[in-house]
Amino acid sequence: MSRRPLGAATRTTPSGPVEVADHLPGIIPVRDAKSPEAPALVFPTRARVLFGKSP
């Protein structure tokens, strides 16, 4: 994944803000909004229920 912005929504979690990109086919990358140079965790699209979205 590139180090450029995900073009994503920023959401606040108990651990702090995260960026979640939900426009990429087949995957949902998530990364720490305070450390955009850090690697993203990548989840399959079917895991979107973890982020509060219905399938």
The topology string of helices and strands comes to EEEE
Strand order of the largest sheet: 1-2-3-4
Percent of residues in beta strands: 35-45%
Average of the residue pLDDT scores: 75
Outline the biggest β-sheet.
4 strands, antiparallel
Write a compact overview of the structure shown:
The protein has 55 residues and is mainly beta. Helix content is 0%, strand content 36%.
Structure description:
- The chain is mostly beta strands and 55 residues long.
- The protein is built from no helices and 4 strands.
- It has strands spanning 9-13, 16-20, 27-32, 41-44.
- Strands 1-2-3-4 form a 4-stranded antiparallel beta sheet, with no helix packed on it.
- A hairpin with a 2-residue loop joins strand 1 (9-13) and strand 2.
Strand and helix layout:
Layout: E1 9-13, E2 16-20, E3 27-32, E4 41-44
Antiparallel strand pairs: 1-2, 2-3, 3-4
